[in-house]
Amino acid sequence: xxxxxxxxLGAIEAGGTKFVLAVGRSPDDIExxxxxxxRKPEETLAEAAQWLxxxxxxxxxxxxxxxxxxxxxxxxxxxxxxxxPKPGWSRCDLAGYFADHLGVPVGFDTDVNGAAxxxxxxxxxxxxxxMAYVTVGTGIGGGLIVNGQxxxxxxxxxxxxxxxxxxxxxxxxxxxxxxxxxxxxxLASGPAILSRWGQKLSDLPQDHEAHTLVAGYLAQLCHSxxxxxxxxxxxxxxxxxxxxxxxxxxxxxxxxIGRDYLPGRTRQQVVPAELGNDAGLVGGxxxxxxxxx
Length: 293
Fold this sequence. Notes:
Blueprint: E1 8-14, E2 18-26, E3 29-37, H1 41-54, E4 58-65, H2 94-102, E5 106-110, H3 111-122, E6 131-136, E7 140-146, E8 149-150, H4 184-188, H5 190-197, H6 209-229, E9 233-237, H7 246-258, E10 269-272, H8 279-290
Parallel strand pairs: 1-4, 4-5, 6-9, 9-10
Antiparallel strand pairs: 1-2, 2-3, 6-7, 7-8
């Protein structure tokens, strides 16, 4: 952790609905923050750059963005948003815009990878070699850290599009994902729950079947992450997991799925996120810190 050397770090958590901006002397010290609505790229990026410039000379900027995004530094379109249904944002050069306008090095990753990095270094994943951060809200997404490193590859992890085994009593609802129907996002995201039961999970009675079904599908993802990646912790965040009792249900059902079979099972936990709404911003500051001048 850099203690701060008198120069500012900047961070952007770029979302489909809003951009959250911050500056700080170190990743664990947010000095100022600001939110702007996500509009057309030219308007949104210009306003974000103006706010950042008004808060002092930056040494680096970190961007944690909605996806899909090009994370391969060797690719000609590194730092770009890829094909997205968000009007006007496909092929937007996020990293290049701010590098040109602010004249600083730019760290670039997905919002969930940024949140995973933040929770690993400063939150619920501290002192683990491997963990996953999973957010369950409007969509379901996740970032994975193995041996202390954020996992990148041909693309970035898309945990929401994992296919869980359907519960034997649950074969009527087709799922709400426009791409895959009954993938995890199509069964357990906020819009899926609302589409199926007409209410948010937190508004449904605790004995309603929704709580068991959603917890069970999320537990399958947690078990699979433990089994495939041998990580120690799955950190859950997002609006849906604020439902009272849900994380406990997910943890209990994850244990039932795996029982005592997996090596290291006693070290594997499902826990709530600690950094809350700041996880993406802190991740952005960590990305900036890693490439600061």
